[in-house]
Design brief:
With 66 residues, the chain is an all-alpha fold. It has one domain (3-65): Orthogonal Bundle (Helix Hairpins). It is built from three helices and no strands. The protein has helices at 3-7, 11-33, 41-65. It is elongated and about 45 Å long.
Length: 66
């Protein structure tokens, strides 16, 4: 996910995306600890995507609070 792509989404869409990414991250962490995760780079990708979503979400909430 690109930051520009995320900035066009609404706050509700971003919150849904954050929830989905949190669930996905939990699943990948669980698979990694049980040695069933083949591609460990997925953990890094999901963690960074979640950080991007939360950053844009925070910016939008700060904008609307003004």
């Amino acid at each position: 996910m690109k930051a520009k792509e995320l900035s066009t989404r609404t706050v509700e869409e971003l919150e849904r995306a954050a929830t989905t990414l949190r669930d996905e991250l939990f699943q990948y962490r669980f698979q990694n600890h049980s040695n069933r995760l083949d591609n460990t780079s997925q953990l890094r990708r999901v963690r960074r995507d979640l950080a991007r979503v939360l950053t844009v979400l925070g910016q939008k909430k700060a904008e609307s609070a003004r």
